[in-house]
Structure formats: C-alpha cells, structure tokens
Amino acid sequence: MTNSEQTSIAWDQLPGDRRDKSRFFLVTEDQLRAVFGAARWGRYYAWVMRISVAADERVGVAEELVVELERRGFETLVHGALADGERDDWAWASAAAARDVAEGRADQAVVCCWTGTGASIAANKVAGIRAALCGDAATAAGARKWNDANVLALSLRSTSTAELTEILDAWFGGEPSVDARDRANIAHLAKIERGH
Length: 196
Description:
alpha/beta; 39% helix; 196 residues
C-alpha cells in the first residue's frame, strides 16, 4: 500500500469499543503520521479520540489548549468557562470533564485552573479517574506510563505555550506500562476506591 492510498476496514471488524460511527473516518497513512507520528490505532482505520476539556477561566493556555487539541485531530468536549451556560468554578468544571471520561463520553480529559491543583483534586474525586497535575513533559510521560493517568491537569498560571506543546506531546505519545508491578498498583487504586 502506498502512503497516499486511502484505506478502510469493514465496520464489523472494528474493535467493539470503537464502533461509534461518528468517530470513524477514512484517512491516509500520511494523515495518521502527521497527526500522531504513526498509524497508532491500526493500519486500516482511524478513530477520533475524544478529549473533554475544562477550565475555570479563559486565561493562560485555556483557549489555546482546545485549539491545539483540535489541530492534533482530537474531538473536544468543553466545560466550565470554555462552554456557554455552564458553571465555571473549578470543582464543577473539572468534575464534569472527569465524568465524561468515567462514563465513556470521552477517552481522556484535560482540566485546568489557576494552579492546576484544584482541578486535579476535583477530577480525582470521580470514580475511575487518575488525574495527574503535570508541569513538564517528563512528568506527563511518567503519569501516562506508570500511573495510567487518564486526566491531565494543567496550571493556567504557569503553563507556557511551549510547555503546553511539550506536555501534550509526552501525554499523547505515552502508553501505560504493561509491567506487572505497575498494573498491580493501578488495580490497587480501584480497590481503594471501593473501600478495600
């Protein structure tokens, strides 16, 4: 197959959790590489990752974050100050984005407040969420690898445009570890949530 050739796959061959037709589209291998660096979700199809985004203010990188995620090919769901008519306080906005992940409306989330701390605390109160406050790319990579983090928390005060790009590269370029000890830690978090 040439790089410019469009490819597809039969609908019933898609993994069961990827059969949402609104998220399936034909792409070229070049398009996949341009957005993700490689054909990450398979050679013959692409699936649009949905990212829920929350911010309590439209300051710092809040609006730029949404633009950058969409530029990378992600579909965004916005909450708080980024959405018209929603409560914009950090606890409400961050919890809404985290619930999108926990309830399957989004694959991951990015939550923001002035320091990022409140946003991460609120997100972590939602069952099944592992939010990580990341101020640099190394922390983001580690959070994805060792903690299987599914919500990225950012500081609107201290995250620059350059840092945002590096953090997003590390976050979305990372994969959870398959090491048995790392998986055991993640499984233990679920037990803690259930009170065990």
